[in-house]
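Hey, can you fold this one?
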Amino acid sequence: MLDKQGIAKRIAKELRDGYYVNLGIGIPTLVANYVPDEIDVTLQSENGLLGMGPFPTEDEIDADLINAGKQTVTTLPGSVFFDSATGFAMIRSGRVDLTVLGAMEVNERGDIANWKIPGKMVKGMGGAMDLVASAQNIIVAMQHTNRAGESKLLQNLSLPVTGLGCVKKIVTNLCVLDVTERGFELKELAPGVTVEDVKNATAGKLIVEGDIPTISV
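Sure. Predicted structure:
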């Protein structure tokens, strides 16, 4: 199976030259550490930063330089700072090419729940509502099952909805899935994971066609 770093590495392969990318809280923030050297990608944080770099080493930490998840980050040459209103204006006006988000649940139609669990304390919706409504492409980075071993890839969401029909691709610790009109389409398997493992861990409709390659990270 993939660990959190492996999920981030695989998602980094989806980045394309010239993209403006927003990375959500959790696993998605790790993608900043694996941007391929050969492409030019600009990472945006809705709290007011364009041109975010990888996480800092211990001697690079600046407590005033943080992302939307309050983690310390670095900046790249040409980075700019602004207020959060401008950050959200970039998102709402469709200037973000790709958003990578974490999720509590995703259903087979690409609906996502990632901001609230009734009766439990969570960080809140943050920029999720704006991102799922405005981003041109959304990839979800998540664990395939919850702590109880129950699938997080469902036929229907059980948690409050963040966005409808917005997720295009999902990368979990078990596999890579495309969200299609027919359901979850299995595209790649994590090392050591079988198709049967994915079937057993997926509650929504899973489509398996042909030989499924192994994820290369």
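The two ends are 12 Å apart (CA to CA). Let me know if you want another pass with a different chain boundary.
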